[in-house]
Model the fold of this input.
Amino acid sequence: MIGCPSLTLTPATLNSGVMGVAYSQTLTPSGGSAPYTFNVTGLPSGLTANATPSNVILSGTPIQSGNFTVNVTVTDTYGCTGSQSYPLVISAPQPLAGDVRFSADFNGDGKTDLAIWRASTATFWVYLSASGNTFSKQMGVSTDVPVPGDYDGDGKADLGVWRPSTGVWWILRSSNGVTMTIQWGMLGDLPVR
Done:
């Protein structure tokens, strides 16, 4: 009876990534006999594993930041296996020129969370202080004004934008995930923040 050869994956480490930025990393097995199959667990939201008979590609755009453990098991054509656990760091995006910074309690835990409104992409980036996780939400257009606040009274800040050219407010309610639209104001007004 012949034993299984040692199956390993290269590279030995994963590249780090940034939330909201496209990510791609190819893992290639050595040892054993192709074709290979792969089982991948622990990927952050937004990343997927796409396998071919000779490798697996971890790719996508991560939508959460943090430290993750990605577990990869490779199986060769004869059923021999090898496993590798990879630490993967997905960092929160750094503020850019033109970003608007503010803070509020977005998850109702009584702690202030940090947030950025990136006008260039009309996207909110929120860092939840208790968990260290980050989420993003595209909302409005680049000329809108960010106006987060607890508009539905649930103790959590809601994401909101106000459009100076029309006086329309868009509020994403944290209580039910529904966006409400309100016409209030006119050209030349400025919202109080």
The radius of gyration is 22 Å.
